[in-house]
Amino acid sequence: MVGRIYHVGLTVSDLDRSIAFYRDILGLEFQGEIFMKGEETDKMFRKSNCKARVAYLNGSKAVEAPPVELIQFVDSEIHKEQPDLFTTSISEVCFYTDDIDSVYRTLIENHVECLSEPQYFDFRADGFGESRAFYFRDPDGIILEMMQPL
């Protein structure tokens, strides 16, 4: 009934700033932007006169890799709360890399808040393998994860 994930949507406060972060710092490819408004948009978001700028970025051409959808609501107040790994919600979005140390250095050089340095995990006994990973925040404080399977 349900297939693969089509995209992962994140509400942001400044679409241009977020596009720059995901494109220029994380290296995702900008795929395009749409503007949503009208009766269907109002019904979908359950808000009268709703307008949204929506951009799509992706780091892979593989069908299994869904794009990141960035949504900025226009002329609407956004309720900004600090995301937390220990709150029931989408806790983070994880990105793949084959050079986690280089990504970490790039984030630090660009003054991105990293919650730790890359950490090593061994879950071979559980059937999942080895990896290195760390959490960091985007410009709105959304928690992201970078992972390098070993």
Q: What would you say this structure looks like, in words?
A:
A hairpin with a 5-residue loop joins strand 6 and strand 7. The protein is of the alpha/beta class and 150 residues long. The chain has three helices and eight strands, in the order βαβαβββαβββ. The longest helix has 11 residues, at 15-25. The chain is globular, with a radius of gyration of 17 Å.
Strand-helix topology:
Blueprint: E1 8-11, H1 15-25, E2 29-36, H2 39-45, E3 51-58, E4 68-74, E5 93-96, H3 100-109, E6 119-123, E7 129-137, E8 143-149
Parallel strand pairs: 1-4, 5-8
Antiparallel strand pairs: 2-3, 3-4, 6-7, 7-8
Radius of gyration, rounded?
17 Å
Average pLDDT number: 92
- What proportion of the residues form beta strands (DSSP E)? 25-35%
Q: What is the helix content?
A: 10-25%
Give the tally of β-strands.
8
Low-confidence stretches: none
> Biggest sheet, open or closed, and with what strands and sense?
4 strands, mixed
- Strand sequence of the main sheet, in spatial order? 1-4-3-2
Q: Based on helices, strands and strand pairing, what is the structural class?
A: alpha/beta
Return the string of H and E elements. Answer: EHEHEEEHEEE
* Termini Cα gap: 33 Å
Number of helices: 3
What spatial form do the alpha-carbon principal axes imply?
Answer: globular
